[in-house]
Design goal:
Distance between the termini: 55 Å
Low-confidence stretches: 1-5
Number of strands: 13
CATH superfamily: Spore Coat Polysaccharide Biosynthesis Protein SpsA, Chain A
Shape: globular
Largest sheet: 9 strands, mixed
Radius of gyration: 20 Å
Length: 304
């Protein structure tokens, strides 16, 4: 793998234009990204991760019916005044903070043409610089934010990186899986805590059969990509349903420029379907300092 020059990562893209069909009928009028996970909408977890990772500019790719996302990260002076007058100054401060959390831009994906197309839609706002991509229905809890971990990988290698985690082989057909490179041509010098978790990527395979999977490492919804990815996405022909897949663009990136997989530190909650959302609600509820003790006692009291 050849090493390219490294630049500071300032921007992140959050695709949020999907129809959320797995949560119908709830998402008929409410964006999936705004469904409450304990006490915050789902998308706020990703934005907070960006802020904690040093990201300065978040680009949210939206679609029709998603205006509530923009409202959420805007100021609400009437609400703040109402809360202050009711003596709820702490809550007023919390609401006000949402409007100044980070610079946020919005761009529309006019048609749901795949994750790769959503990322490509943000090309002009990203410009010629590396950027993070966070899938909003994947919540990762970790001492060091997962996006920050990938930024450190980019700083060490000068190349793109994706977060991965191992799963049991009987679940492998549900995910995108990396094929590790057997003999990467160059391994740059880097801190040992990064090197021991890093795997060079030769290829990526979508939902392979168990006996055809090239590894047990799956892609988990966090990406750190160089600007060259836009050129590869523009070369990517639409697949099933006319969609452009990010995986196909990353396959070209891995072959021509190099790509790393990083076994991130943390716990991942897949809130992209109903069962995963319920699991995330329970586990994050138990982690909540205000609600956790009472919620834990309630769960222990249940008898089925």
């Amino acid at each position: 793998m050849s090493i390219t020059s490294s630049r500071r990562v300032r921007k992140a893209v959050l695709p949020a234009a999907g129809l959320g069909t797995r949560f119908l009928p709830a998402t008929k009028s409410v964006p999936k990204e705004m469904l409450p996970l304990v006490d915050k909408p789902l998308i706020q977890y990703s934005v907070e991760e960006c802020v904690a990772s040093g990201i300065e500019h978040v680009i949210i790719v939206t679609g029709r019916g998603k205006s509530s996302i923009e409202d959420h990260f805007d100021y609400a002076p009437e609400l703040e005044q109402f809360l202050a007058e009711k003596g709820k100054s702490d809550l007023a401060t919390e609401v006000h903070a949402l409007g100044k959390m980070v610079e946020v831009s919005y761009i529309r994906q006019r048609e749901a043409l795949g994750l790769g197309h959503a990322v490509l839609t943000a090309k002009e706002l990203v410009g010629n610089e590396p950027f993070a991509v966070l899938l909003g229905d994947v919540v990762i809890q970790s001492e060091k934010p997962a996006t920050r971990q990938l930024i450190e990988v980019y700083g060490a290698t000068g190349q793109g990186a994706i977060a991965v985690e191992p799963v049991p082989m009987d679940q492998i057909s549900l995910y995108g899986v990396i094929k590790p490179a057997k003999n990467p041509t160059t391994t740059p010098p880097m801190p040992s805590h990064i090197a021991e978790r890093l795997v060079a990527v030769e290829d990526l395979v979508e939902k392979p059969k168990r006996d055809e999977a090239p590894s047990n490492l799956i892609v988990t919804g966090r990406y750190l990509l160089p600007p060259e990815i836009f050129g590869y996405l523009e070369q990517t022909p639409p697949g099933r349903g006319g969609e452009i897949q990010l995986t196909d663009g990353m396959r070209l990136l891995a072959k021509e420029k190099g790509l790393w997989a990083y076994r991130y530190e943390g716990v991942c909650y897949d809130a992209g379907d109903k069962l995963g959302f319920l699991k995330a609600t329970v586990e994050l509820g138990l982690r909540n300092s205000e609600l956790g003790p009472a919620f834990r006692a309630y769960l222990r009291s249940l008898k089925f």
